[in-house]
Amino acid sequence: MKNLLENCQIVPAVVPTAGAVANLTPVEVDGRGFSKAVFAFEMGAIAATGKFNAKIQKAATSGGALADCTGAALTEIVAAGASKVYAIEVTIDPAKPFMKVTGAVTVDTAANSAVCLLHRGSGKYPKSAPATEAVLA
Questions:
Q1: What is the pLDDT of residues 99-117, one digit of tens each?
Q2: pLDDT tens-digit series, residues 46-62
């Protein structure tokens, strides 16, 4: 059996925060040499009226102009989504391999953090697979 991490790399995607109302502080993810990216968002406590939004954007160069990854956005997370992990999986576009999470905590607090698992792939994935969202309770 192969070690999963032989074909993967885990990198920060969002600076962890206690969740004050503010825009997220993203960390640029360099997807060059990888075929898939899974952005995993860990939610902590969310105030009764707190809301969390996030989506994935991509660019051709480091620090370049960002464009949305089609379908790569979380459904708005509210108080009922506290203490869960949410994930967005995207196929990396070799022409735009630099990715960032954009989003915000709005109305009230929502503690959060995010990492990205980059995968080199095995050739089993379709090249144009759509982005998908999963909730891991």
A1: 999 999 999 999 999 999 9
A2: 999 999 999 999 999 99
Backbone CA torsion sign across 107, 108, 113, 119: negative
- Give yes or no for a contact between 119 and 19, defined as CB atoms under 8 angstroms apart: no
- The answer to whether the CB of 27 falls within 8 A of the CB of 12 is yes
Domains of the chain: 4-136 (2.60.120)
Query: What are 28's two structure tokens?
Result: 């640029």
SS3 (DSSP) at 6: helix
Of 105, 45, 107, 50, which Cα lies nearest the Cα of 78? 50
